[in-house]
Design a protein that fits this description.
five-stranded antiparallel beta sheet; about 450 residues; Heat Shock Protein 90; alpha+beta; five-stranded mixed beta sheet; single chain; 12 strands
Length: about 450
Amino acid sequence: MRLELKLALIGAISKIVIFILLFILMQQVIDNQAVKHTDRDLIKMKDKTLSIVEKIGINSFLNIERDSVYASYNMLKDEYISIDIDPSKNGEKLVFSNEAREIEDEEFDFRILNYRFEINNQHYVLEIGKSVQLINSLNKMIKNISISIILLVLLITILVDIGINKYLLTPLNKMILGKLKTITDPETFDFSDLTSSTSDFVSLNNALNELMHKVSESLKNQQRFTANVSHELFTPISVMQSKLENLLLSNDLPEHFITDILEQQEHLNRLQQIIKALLLIARIENDQFAKDETLNLRELIEEIILNIEDRAQMRNITIENAIPAGLIVGKVNKSLVYILLFNLISNAIKYNKDNGEIKVSCFNNGPNFNIEITDSGIGIEQDQIPKIFDRFKRADPLTGEGYGLGLSIVKSIVLFHQGSIDVRSELGVGTTFKVQFALTDVNVSHLS
């Protein structure tokens, strides 16, 4: 998950928690305020009723001879007023309560005000009620409006936070992360300064530039060292090779000497191959090859098969060339692509089973062009796959058997063409090497 989304998510969660707590508190406040508001309305109704009583007299409400109770309620029965003689003549003067009252054989819940007063030495009790259902309806409406406002404010604040985070992290996303994504070659790295008001981002960009300067210089020194050492080794090895050849021309050498000389020649030949491979890698990494050639991929595979088929025939291994005829690939170095595919097919033969199969195919995948070399060989252990492209990496430290420089050369050639290489393998089933190049310079009309 991206940093700006994480920040927005954390902000949203914290706001949601705060709003939940605020809503719980608000519920209590609304309930309390609703009760207080109702009580104030009841007091106003009490004062208004007493004012009317004072003006027209209590007898207008009560006819003592006929009935000692006055009661009035509205049509919806959500409010009522009653005045009765108070026989107790004691108790609190003003009391609020929630009680049920029966009106016309129906029972309703009311918020009730009880008020005791005295007129002409006669004690009376005034009772005014408001329907609890009416109060709850108003309360519910207020709560729904409050929830809607809270959710709207929450949504607006989250969107504002996302926008602010995106704005603040723009230098990181566009400049620094953009640089990190394109780190494939220090020579093409963007060392430009970062313009930002956030000093942390500027410091990070400067540190990244400084690090890549050091990496670039280190790689250049390593490449120069490899090229120089490999080149310098050629002369003494050639001299040793010549001397051994001269010794073999001598007719008076014992037979066991001849065997030793031939063995040493094999070691020297192997050393020469290693030096040539190192020089090739150094030249590739120093960008000493052009990439302005085109090649017919099927014809190139046919040429490789022709040059290597004797090794395949010795083990009865069949090689299928599934590349479409006329498929043209441009902006490559033909010699390097030949070495790349030759090494992969050669390895497919070397690590295959007798009577095995090898298939060379290609396909396009979005903006990429893929070449696959699949074999039915012994496979590679999963923990060894990340190591197979390392130079001189030993697969088995006990036997000394390793991967040599062939796959290291393959990877260097792929990177030289701004491509990538992936490996899928299963022990006892086989291995597939997938080489991926950009599709822009491939004649896709020949791809199925």
